[in-house]
Amino acid sequence: MKNDQLKPATIAAQAAGATDKQTGGVVPGIHLSTTYQREPDYGLTRPDNVYGRDQNDTVRQAEEVLRQLENAAATLLFPTGMAAVAAVFRALPDGARAIVQSGIYWGTLKWVRDFCARRGIILEEVEAADASALTEACRSSADLVWIETPSNPWLKVVDIAAAAGLAHKAGAVLVVDATAATPVLTRPLDHGADIVMHSASKAINGHTDVLAGVLSCRDQGAAMWQAIAMDRHDAGAIIGPFEAWLLMRGMRTLPLRVERMCANAMAIAQFLDAHGGVEAVLYPGLESDPGHAIASQQMRGGYGSLLSVVLKGDRAHALDVVGRLRLFHRATSLGGVESLVEHRHTIEPHTGIPETLLRLSVGIEDAGDLIADLAQALEGA
Ligand SMILES: *Cc1c(COP(=O)(O)O)cnc(C)c1O
């Protein structure tokens, strides 16, 4: 059976067939060498291995797992999600036009604004979850359309296939940050995206102990992908072999973790939605959510582990609730096996995040325990 026909659970559990060829080990080794030998005739012992800045078998194996999970032509790992974001924008020529979804991950927006200003790139921030706004923005030609679905922390859902159609008509490449979905729930390339990006520091690794980013493409020969690959090779934004190995270990349970996290998140969203102290729950899994219909089309097997809840009352009350939580760790980030809570307004006070919004990253703990913790925190001391 061709590996590309296997289901995600099999690809992940067996790390896309990686074993240790030298020892016969079921688990592959970690290759740390920064340089590679040449033969007496000065030919390379392995023609694809010259120097460790871009050529490492452990990194390649982790990339192969992700390539198969994404159904991609090629995959490149980066030392962080932001390094992957930067690699895409650095591939744009000066004076390019980039359409970027508004209200997405703040780290991306902040860096992109600064970078585009310095490089003379025309940046247009558009509410891409609103089809008419994206249609309007794509009327003039563009080089790049960047969307994030579901978005962080607003949980807005963008129709990837529709966005791909609009981007391509404008002559642009569509890149999708699918960090909150993971390749288990959504494969953006199957919906027409050109490149998919993830912060692998989140659910893909899942254990809150590796920083990594990843890009995968539909067409390896495309000019933008070639530029990205050359930039990684020449500029050296490469993940270390130890991180790549840990990532591969984490990914063995990715489909299993995502399944449990989605079930927990749905149970929590429903509990919060019915709670008297709650103003609104932002989660595409809820039928009342504006993104539910599109999410149901392009997400398979669940709606993700990220959700936001807007509480009734004021900022002080919201912070009190956060302070009373015992199981949810008060910390940024998402996608780990342990649940996290974040008061986003404290982190980005000037971007329109409500003072009573709490962002929850739901882990794999017992759903009943998590709900009981939220219940006691909402009731008060
Ligand atoms: C965390 C995150 C990033 C940045 O990734 P790092 O690995 O932290 O650099 C980008 N996009 C989204 C949606 C994220 O959640």
From TrEMBL:
Its cofactor is pyridoxal 5'-phosphate. InterPro entries: Cys/Met-Metab_PyrdxlP-dep_enz (IPR000277), PyrdxlP-dep_Trfase (IPR015424), PyrdxlP-dep_Trfase_major (IPR015421), PyrdxlP-dep_Trfase_small (IPR015422). GO terms for biological process: cysteine biosynthetic process via cystathionine; transsulfuration. GO terms for molecular function: cystathionine gamma-lyase activity; pyridoxal phosphate binding. Keywords: Pyridoxal phosphate. GO terms for cellular component: cytoplasm. It comes from the Bacteria. The modification N6-(pyridoxal phosphate)lysine is found at residue 202. Gene3D superfamilies: Aspartate Aminotransferase, domain 1, Type I PLP-dependent aspartate aminotransferase-like (Major domain). PANTHER family: CYSTATHIONINE GAMMA-LYASE, TRANS-SULFURATION ENZYME FAMILY MEMBER. Belongs to the trans-sulfuration enzymes family. This is Cystathionine gamma-synthase. It comes from Roseovarius lutimaris.
